[in-house]
UniProtKB/TrEMBL annotation:
It is found in: Cell membrane. It is a multi-pass membrane protein. May be a proton symporter involved in the uptake of osmolytes such as proline and glycine betaine. Keywords: Cell membrane, Membrane, Symport, Transmembrane, Transmembrane helix, Transport. It comes from Brevibacterium sandarakinum. This is Putative proline/betaine transporter. Residues 22-433 form the Major facilitator superfamily (MFS) profile domain. One of its GO terms (cellular component) is plasma membrane. InterPro entries: H+-coupled_symporters (IPR051084), MFS (IPR011701), MFS_dom (IPR020846), MFS_trans_sf (IPR036259), Sugar_transporter_CS (IPR005829). SUPFAM superfamilies: MFS general substrate transporter. Belongs to the major facilitator superfamily. Metabolite:H+ Symporter (MHS) family (TC 2.A.1.6) family.
Length: 437
């Protein structure tokens, strides 16, 4: 029999005002972060021409995706540091600093010189800025999720947690819309010279707005209660490895489907459609934009469903669906019909929301309050470092090695198998008060 979480209580007018600010502050930070990652992925082919020497075949594109992947190397380091700050000093402090670093580094990409101007210094500078972005991003997703879940009214943690992936998809959506517009109205020469830089310049004002909102919020009720009871620990990361290594391993494996699926389905797909299946750049961006619009709606419904049916059940269904239907979906992408491509992308995005809309709350509930930020940040960033950031690179490499456009589908299916095993080992926590997790 399905267990139901505690009934939601109606917050007061003041509480509603605070909750709206909490949602806005959490939304805009992830929006800026994933807007950057999306734009980088969508303009990968152009960035390859700008920052790397002219080369044959897919070498320049692989180099671009390699820089994308290397930026994830520092994310586990960032996870440890931001987790420590968030669990020891407070969630708000960590989030206020991380969004500032992210905004400045994203803006800086638009200012970087090309390979034609400075030679090898161009890709080196690009790598340096991406490393800074990777470090700052390590604290954003985990911190925003913990912030929302700890502020959420009883019985609403799932829908509040789903705001985080909704904000990431919104950032990708804006990136996709801008990519579609710029590739349709600018010539290739204009796009390569200055057009690709425009989206990166938008990060600074958006990030400053997000930081302004965050600095005017109190820390979460759960963390303030912890501080008042003098239960904040000096070394949360050490306590996490010592006392909570099992949920940490489960969480890392559970993240795998999100890590691979998010980057393959929502950021790599336009490049895949253009370079592997021969669709036009504008067509590819339009298809991804439509898929992202439906993804945002689906993901909030998944958050509601996880509050009703539980986190494990939703993640279990997501894994099974990907195991059964991913490869057939990639087969349909090669049908030659643009309508079919759009429908398949909508279907893949809907499948992904079953996982992504549940995962933030699932991970937040895996760890007690005193190490929640650390546990979430370390598990999420380790998996994303190893498998998420490398997903576009691996997809491109596997296609080259196997000479099969279905290779990304098999890779995604393997990630779903690992996620399924982790979910089966996890405990259900959606019906418990957060303090008792």
């Amino acid at each position: 029999m399905t267990q139901i979480s505690a009934p939601a209580t109606s917050p007061s007018v003041k509480q509603k005002r605070v909750l709206r600010r909490v949602i806005s502050a959490s939304f805009i930070g992830n929006f800026v972060e994933w807007f950057d990652y999306g734009v980088y992925g969508y303009f990968a082919a152009t960035i390859a021409l700008v920052f790397f020497p002219a080369s044959e075949g897919s070498i320049a594109l692989l180099s671009t995706f390699a820089v994308f992947a290397v930026s994830f190397v520092v994310r586990p380091i960032g996870g440890f540091i931001w987790g420590h700050i968030g669990d020891k000093i407070g969630r708000r402090s960590a989030l206020s600093v991380s969004i500032l670093i992210m905004s400045v580094s994203t803006f800086a990409i638009g200012l970087l010189p090309s390979y034609a101007m400075v030679g090898l210094f161009a890709p080196l500078l690009l790598l340096l800025v991406r490393l800074v972005q990777g470090f700052s991003a390590a604290g954003e997703y985990a911190g925003a999720s913990a912030f929302l879940v700890e502020y959420a009214p009883p019985g609403r943690r799932g829908i509040y947690g789903a705001v985080v992936p909704a904000s990431t998809a919104s950032g990708l959506l804006l990136g996709s819309v801008l990519a579609a517009v710029l590739t349709s109205v600018l010539t290739d020469a204009q796009l390569e010279t200055w057009g690709w830089r425009l989206p990166f310049f938008l990060a600074a004002p958006m990030g400053l707005i997000g930081r302004y909102i965050r600095t005017r919020l109190e820390d979460t009720p759960a963390f303030r209660e912890l501080a008042q009871e003098d239960e904040v620990i000096k070394a949360p990361v050490f306590a996490m490895f010592r006392d909570h290594w099992r949920p940490l391993v489960i969480a890392m494996c559970a993240v795998l489907l999100n890590a691979v699926g998010f980057y393959v389905v929502l950021t790599y797909m336009p490049t895949y459609l253009t370079t592997e299946l021969g669709y036009g750049a504008t067509e590819s961006f339009v298809a991804t934009t439509i898929a992202l619009l439906t993804y945002i709606g689906f993901i909030l419904l998944t958050g509601l469903a996880s509050d009703r049916f539980g986190r494990k059940r939703m993640l279990f269904i997501a894994s099974i669906v990907f195991i059964l239907f991913t490869v057939p979906a990639f087969m349909l992408l090669g049908s030659g019909s643009f309508t079919v491509v759009v429908l398949v992308q909508i279907a893949l995005g809907g499948m992904l929301t079953l996982n992504d809309g549940t995962l933030p709350t699932f991970l937040a509930e895996m760890f007690p309050t005193r190490i929640r930020y650390s546990g979430f940040a370390v598990s999420f960033n380790l998996s994303n470092s190893l498998f998420g950031g490398t997903a576009p690179f691996m997809a491109t490499l596997l296609i080259g090695l196997t000479n099969s456009p279905l290779a990304p589908g098999w890779y995604l299916m393997a990630a779903a198998v690992v996620c399924l095993g982790a979910v089966l080992c996890a405990k259900e926590t959606f019906h418990k008060p957060l303090r008792e997790v």
